[in-house]
Amino acid sequence: MDVIKFFIEKPVTVAVAVIIIVVFGLIGLSKLPVQLTPDVETPQITVTTTWGGATPYEVEKEIIEKQEEQLKGLRGLNKMESASYNSYGEITLSFGLETDIDDALLRVSNKMNEVPSYPENADKPVIEAAGADSSPIIWMVLKTQPENKEHINHFRTFFEDNVRQHIERVKGVGALFVFGGTENELHITIDPEKMARHNITINGITDAVKKANINVSAGVLGISKKNYRIRTVSQFQDAGDALDVVLFDDGVKRVYLRDVADVSQGHKKEDVSVLHNGVQVIVIGVKKEPGTNVLEMTDKMEQVVNELNDTILADKQLRFEMVYDQRPYINTAINLVKKNVLIGGLLAICVLLIFLRSVRSTIITALAIPISAIGTFMFLWIMGRNLNVVSLAGISFAVGMLVDNAIVVLENIDRHRKMGKDAFSAAYDGAQEVWGAVFASTATTVAVFLPIIFIQEEA
Fold first, then answer.
1. What is the b/e burial string over 204-241, where b = at least 16 CB atoms within 10 angstroms of the residue's CB?
2. Would you call 226 helix, strand, or coil by DSSP?
3. Position with higher pLDDT, 131 vs 190
4. Alpha-carbon gap, residue 362 to 368, rounded angstroms
């Protein structure tokens, strides 16, 4: 089949094909995620376990080593790193770039269920689809409004209970890094003299409070045709409820918590402090999931922040401020490349007009540039790529190759026209003579860059 003759003889078919390429190219452009660089982040999963009051050695010996024993056999695992600190430890799992993060999360969760045991007061491990060392792409601060006289540290529990879930539900959020503030807790201040008088120990108080502060289900009681679900409700609703906890009862003497201690609502001891412009705040860093559209996620996050500021945060006289995000830098970089591509195309058209001295030939080449560039967006969309500085730079490079090839073909067609041939014959003979050279020139350039397609890591 003579491809050149087919395209010359079928102008309507060619026009329809061009229209389809432009339409789907524009659709692809509107749907392409925009990022600063190509998405080559290593899929990482972080497992964090909290054990209050434990030393790093104890965390490693009693928790981390047991978890590593189960996780080391995960399919696709490239690297496993762990770190132990006072009161908590974390394991960062790095997988191959081709690994599906959702599938990896499921496999990690199943493996964590195989850990034989944890210390009694250790919290359940938290599994997050973000590396422990990955940098947040959004930084926000929670601060009190001027009319709010309460310290910002006292709102950490409010944030965890009422605000955190709104941020985590934003599409693309992988994990939150929260720093600052102190959580609410119940303070029991014991009197050693009263404890000695009643022969009560600290361990006895601790065990009694733990046992009393739970709701217990007692099963179902069937009476006639009805079933009654029985449960004992004894969780503390306020600080005063704890005073009624029985510490000792032998049938003759009963000792309550109020007899040996005072109870008050308080906050955990402050061990960190975060300042923003000299004002103490709670800082929230937002980490993204791999493959997330950064611009889209940031826009949605800004909408959620504004809604929170107008609703539940306003009721507590609090306010979120987004102090950093990547949108300005990404938009500036992307717009710079777009501007350079546009200027380069216009300069190429001017050069064509000067050297070809033919408005018609110049218009043909000028139309080929945007059509080819727009068609590229369609294939980027189909292949699941994103729009970034590197892909735009590649398009601008390809535009230069396109102009080179167009000049070669048009100049040869113009030569045949000057030999007295009609437009059809000149177009056919001119393209037929040089298509092999044009194809070879383009193929060699593609061959040079072909290995880059198979590079998955960041170079």
1. bbeebbeebeeeeeeeeeeeeeeeeeeeeeeebeeeeb
2. strand
3. 190
4. 10
211-to-242, 244, 257 alpha-carbon distances in Å: 11, 13, 13
Helix (H, G, I), strand (E, B) or coil at 230: strand
CA-CA distance, 346 to 354, in Å (whole number)?
12
Please tell me which residue, 364 or 321, carries the higher pLDDT value: 321
Q: How far apart are CA 291 and CA 277, in angstroms?
A: 33
Burial class of residue 442 (count of CB atoms within 10 Å of its CB; 0-12, 13-18, 19+): middle
Beta bridge partners of 226: 223
Token pair recorded at residue 37: 């660089």
The backbone torsions φ and ψ at residue 358, rounded to the nearest 5 degrees and listed phi first, read -140, 115
Q: List alpha helices for 280-386, DSSP H.
A: 294-310, 312-315, 327-356, 359-382
* Per-residue pLDDT at 244: 83
Cβ atoms 424, 441 nearer than 8 A: no
**Distance of alpha carbon 137 from alpha carbon 211, whole angstroms:** 43
DSSP 244: G
**Is residue 234's pLDDT more than 80?**
no
The span from the CA of 416 to the CA of 212, in Å, is 99
Other CB atoms within 10 A of residue 9 CB: 12
CB 36 within 8 A of CB 389: yes
Structure tokens at 253: 């003497």
